[in-house]
Amino acid sequence: MSEQLSLFADAPSRTRLDSPREVRPADFPGQLTETARNLPEGLFIGTSSWSFPGWHGLVYAENYEPAELAHGGLAAYARFPLFRSVGIDRTFYAPIPREEYERYAAQVPTGFRFVVKAPVQCVSPKLRADPGNRALDNPHFLDPAWAVRHFIEPAMQGLGRNTGPLVFQFSPLPRALAREPAEFAWRVGTFLRALPKGPVYAVELRDEALLTDEYLHVVADAGARHCVGLHPRQPSAAEQARLLRKLSPGPLVVRWNLHRDYAHEEARVRYFPFSQLRDEDLPTRVTLARLCLEAAAAHQPAFVIVNNKAEGSAPLTILKLAELVAAEAARHHGRLWVGDHDV
After folding, report:
1. Which of 157, 222, 262, 331 lies at 20 to 30 Å from 167 by C-alpha?
2. Coil, strand, or helix at residue 124?
3. Domain that includes residue 40, residue range
């Protein structure tokens, strides 16, 4: 559907926000609805946020201001036929109260799921200090009681049936800890086993040295999942898929964060305003399509969150990925294949 690119026509941007307008969804081509109809029921795909004016003409009817989208864009976002999920990343920087989660849940349908990042206090041994000062030791690092009180309970109570995976993303760790992958795996396993049962917990790493067989089995034994985090600091999607296949079937959690050739700021500048695909990555798309179909064949849910910095425009990446999955599912008339065949 390359003609989708033409939907991103330039539009004048408002210079100031006088009052929030009602955010209206774009008019969706019928083919999008047909593609969505052919996706596995348990596939929840979406983007890492929704406040991007560059998505006008595809997701949104007009070129709304970021503040307008942040305030009222989620309901319009959730009407895009392919979007069954969205990431909440702001929780990484500070916990939010149950009422904020409730406000999000009130804007989406019952079958929608939120993929929520845990606060940094859960996952970082050090906390940033004021410029010029040394980072402070974090007393709440891998503290299950703190995580339950400030993250898990508010999220589950506020989102209710819309709760998706709760993701513990470990940014690059201090060298002393990163050099001890067995110690890290043991500590993460102890933490996960102390959490309440119910939600899907997923662990995302940014240190490749920590992605060991021991880590994978410890996380699985704790009832959690390895999050396939696609980022230059992690192995390719194909390699992480190979590692996942060593484990028993379970929910699939993917966050396609960043193109392998760029740092965050480089990708942001290159891809802004996120209205077209600039660096298509077909091998990664094919791998993710396979993983989604394998999850469906095993009767497991799959959650795939895509960032604009993956290929240039998250909605268009999701469109291409959904077309791969839907075409393969339709070709087999509902018999979802599993294996290493070409898509």
Report:
1. 262
2. coil
3. 21-45+231-343
Domain boundary among the residues 206, 226, 246 is at 226
Asked if 92 and 167 count as a contact pair (C-beta separation under 8 A), the reply is: no
Q: Helical H runs in 65-147?
A: 66-77, 98-105, 120-123, 144-147
CA nearest 243: which of 211, 209, 219? Answer: 211
Q: Is residue 71 situated within a structural domain? A: no
Q: Tell me if 274 is assigned to some domain.
A: yes
In this predicted model, what pLDDT tens digit does every residue of 210-258 receive, in sequence order? Answer: 999 999 999 999 999 999 999 999 999 999 999 999 999 999 999 999 9
The partner residues of 303 in beta bridges, in order of sequence, read: 44, 253
151/239 same-domain check: no
The partner residues of 253 in beta bridges, in order of sequence, read 303
Residues 118 and 166 sit within 8 Å (Cβ to Cβ): yes
Number of domains in the chain: 2
Is the pLDDT at 29 greater than 60? The verdict is yes
Residues 341, 251 share a domain = yes
Taking the mean position of all CA atoms in its chain, how far away is CA 315? Answer: 13
pTM over 0.85: yes
Residue 326 lies in a domain: yes
Name the amino acid, one letter, at 61.
A
| Listed range (148-162, 164-178, 192-206, 249-263) with the worst mean pLDDT | 164-178
Q: Flag whether 1 is in a domain.
A: no
Dihedral over alpha carbons 110, 155, 55, 316 (to 10 degrees): -70
